[in-house]
Amino acid sequence: MGLLDEGRTPHGGALHDLRATPATVHWGYFSASLAPALRVASGDIIRAEAVTHHAGDAPELMMDDGVRAIFDGVPVEDRNPGVHIMTGPIHVEGARPGDMLEVRYLQMTPRLRYGSNLAANWGHLYREFDERERVTIYKVDEGSQTATAAFAYDFPGKYTTPGTITHARDCCRVPALPGVRIPVRPHLGTAGVAPDVAGRVSSIPPGAHGGNIDNWRIGAGATMFYPVQVDGALFSIGDPHISQGDGEISGTAIEASLDVVFQVFVRRDFAFPSPLLRTPRHWMTHGFDEDLNQAMRNASLEMLRLLTEQHGLSRDDAYSLMSVAADFAVTQVVDGRQGVHARICHAVFPPKEG
Fold first, then answer.
1. Tens digit of pLDDT for each residue in 37-86?
2. Which domains are assigned to the chain?
3. What DSSP state is assigned to residue 255?
4. What secondary structure letter does DSSP report for 316?
5. So what's the pLDDT on residue 8?
6. Total Cβ atoms within 10 A of residue 110
């Protein structure tokens, strides 16, 4: 079975539940030295909770007892060097460096009906807004699968501590985005395997291990392939969103906790050096760098690799196809290491025989 046949793999395997608790999350980092929160076999299905670190932006709406327990149970000094609450890690039996971890995201459901967007100090236009930070709280309409702004308020001071809890008094709330509806598309901003690096690796920058890719297409129905770097893969999920645009320009998406169902497979029949995404309609490669031009070049080289190694095209043919049929877009510009993704439609290729 090759990469292009992955959709034909039969489903099956045991079902596991992984709740997010102070004992099963790690706040702000990936680490190869973490003890597994769960052990599974290739082909198993996991139901896991992903909790947003922005639940404190409207605690009365975005926190339940389980979320509060995490905010109360993980000391502020242990929330570093990144910001995201990561559930895991999950040890996948038999996974070893050089393998690929295939993760099929099957379902993503909002845990609560509210989410938060922060126009943050790391946002792309922070100076244009006089270095003022604003929180907009959104409410999900389950019937229409849209989100509307419930209210907004100016954040007091500068948002610097992961998990800050803010109690916005009624006097400080203002209306926002009247009549505007945003399509709900739940996805994970951050997920990945543990890098083969000593100590903690920040959850903020994306990289070969996955991490904070912030591609809104990593939702239900999508499949991600992560290059395994340590034994067991040590896969974690976090930074759940209910909607985001390409760019994530203000600093965050609509941050909201999700319940996630996914299935994992260990793959040894192909290799790829960076996170690779398959959606029902597209293949997508990713490029990351502090320089957006270099991120674009990296995404281009990864798409060239996909087309030559997996689709059998010559380099010249692949280069021409990329220019006339592939779309390139900025994934995000707010995580220090910026991202570009390249996508190409399955429909441009001839159907496989058999």
1. 999 999 999 999 999 999 999 999 999 999 999 999 999 999 999 999 99
2. 3-111+186-277 (2.60.120.580), 114-183 (no CATH), 281-348 (3.10.28.20)
3. E
4. H
5. 47
6. 19
| Interior angle at CA 352, CA 347 and CA 354, nearest 5 | 140
Q: How far apart are CA 166 and CA 155, in angstroms?
A: 8
What pTM, to 2 d.p., does this model score? 0.96
DSSP string, 284-303: EEEEEESSHHHHHHHHHHHH
The CA distance from 61 to 50, in Å, is: 17
Closest alpha carbon to 48 in 5, 127, 107? 107
How does DSSP classify residue 207?
Answer: B
Please write the tens of the pLDDT for every residue from 178-205. 999 999 999 999 999 999 999 999 999 9
Question: Nearest CA to 89 among 194, 216, 2?
Answer: 194
DSSP 42: T
Which residues touch 123 (CB under 8 Å, ≥6 apart)?
249, 250, 251, 334
The pLDDT of residue 231 is: 98
Q: Are 112 and 255 in contact (CB under 8 A)?
A: no
Name the strand (E) or helix (H) holding 15: strand 15-18
Among the listed residues 240, 193, 237, the one whose alpha carbon sits nearest the alpha carbon of residue 48: 237
- Confirm if 229 and 235 have CB atoms less than 8 A apart: no
Assess contact for 88 and 26: CB atoms under 8 A: yes
Grade residue 168 by pLDDT with cuts at 50, 70 and 90. confident
Q: DSSP for 89-154, please give it.
A: EEEETT--TT-EEEEEEEEEEESSSEEEEEE-TTSTTGGGGTT--EEEEEEEETTTTEEEEEEEEE
State the distance between the two ends of the chain, measured CA to CA, in whole angstroms.
13
- Mean pLDDT (the chain) is 96
Separation of alpha carbons 24 and 66, rounded Å: 12
Q: Return d(Cα 208, Cα 275) in angstroms, integer.
A: 6
